[in-house]
Design a protein that fits this description.
It is a single chain. The chain contains 8 helices and 7 strands. It is of the alpha/beta class. The longest helix is centred in the middle third of the chain and has 29 residues. The N and C termini lie far apart (about 35 Å). The model has no long low-confidence stretch (mean pLDDT about 100). Bound molecules: NADP nicotinamide-adenine-dinucleotide phosphate.
């Protein structure tokens, strides 16, 4: 097993990519802290599935964009496990509006959930990891955070993910050599949300992708596993998009 006893916090793991990553990391021996803001039922289901399969996991409900919630979550982790080895900042959400429709609050909401949560959790984890001179921080960016592939209609999300990518590379410089910091930038990854879209919209996404298919959540989880164990890599944004960026860059 590649992650035996590694204490791993995965934010936004009550469903989708985070859920798949929590299950894969647990299968590889990690003790996983599952987190989400609203979906405690989903979080507890993920924990049940992991523990039923012989793995180790707990659920902590917390809003990663709220400093007090984040402090409380880290206090629980330290009380129960004494440390944290891997942090995956995966929590995020994209809300659709045209630029003119967006309010200042919409921009704040997108940056809170997608960017400031990443900053707050990383800061808490950094204190613990620097003290022991080891640790890994992984972030979920997006193809929408790349320079030329942001999307109209989800502009605040695109900008927030661009901030996540820049934060990743800059933090990697500041925390080296003790802590490695990397990100995965997923393309169209088929989570339950995609079931709500029309066949035409989904066909359009596939058309924009060279491999002519959706990415599966477990394929993003595999990318996180690789980066968690790749000792030579820091400051990398690993794009997993079936060639979307090649076609649209
Ligand atoms: N699916 C894609 O095509 C795709 C592509 C590129 C990037 N991404 C990114 O991948 C990540 C996971 O998304 P997903 O597609 O797997 O969607 P998802 O199934 O909706 O998962 C989003 C997760 O984020 C959590 N979350 C959102 N805001 C939070 C907050 N403030 N505090 C704590 N947890 C919060 C949600 O928790 P609750 O539901 O419990 O509140 C949920 O567990 C996101 O960062 C997303 O932007 C996805």
């Amino acid at each position: 097993m590649k992650l035996q006893n590694k204490i791993t916090l995965i934010t936004g793991s009550t469903s989708g990519i985070g859920e798949a990553t929590a299950k894969l990391f647990a299968k590889e021996g990690a003790t996983v802290i599952v987190n989400g803001k609203n979906n405690s039922k989903g979080g507890l289901n993920v924990v049940n599935e992991i523990t039923s399969a012989g793995g180790s996991a707990i659920f902590i409900q917390a809003d990663v964009a709220d400093q007090k919630n984040v402090d409380g979550m880290f206090e629980k982790i330290i009380k129960q496990y004494g440390t944290i080895d891997i942090l995956i900042n995966n929590a995020g959400v994209a809300r659709s509006k045209t630029f003119l429709e967006t309010t200042y609050q919409d921009w704040l909401n997108e940056f809170n959930d997608n960017f400031f949560g990443t900053v707050l959790c990383s800061q808490r984890a950094t204190g613990i990891m620097l003290a022991k001179k080891s640790g890994v921080i992984l972030n979920t960016s997006s193809i929408r955070g790349n320079l030329h592939t942001g999307r109209e209609g989800i502009m605040p999300y695109s900008a927030a993910k661009a901030a996540v990518s820049n934060f990743t590379t800059t933090l990697a410089k500041e925390l080296a050599p003790s802590i490695r910091v990397n990100a995965v930038a997923p393309g169209f990854t088929y989570t339950p949300y995609y079931d709500t879209l029309t066949e035409e919209t989904k066909k359009g996404f596939i058309e924009k992708t060279y491999l002519k298919r959706f990415i599966q959540p477990n394929e993003i989880a595999e990318a996180f596993l690789y980066l968690a164990t790749a000792e030579a890599i820091t400051g990398e944004i690993l794009v997993v998009d079936g060639g979307f960026t090649l076609k649209n860059g």
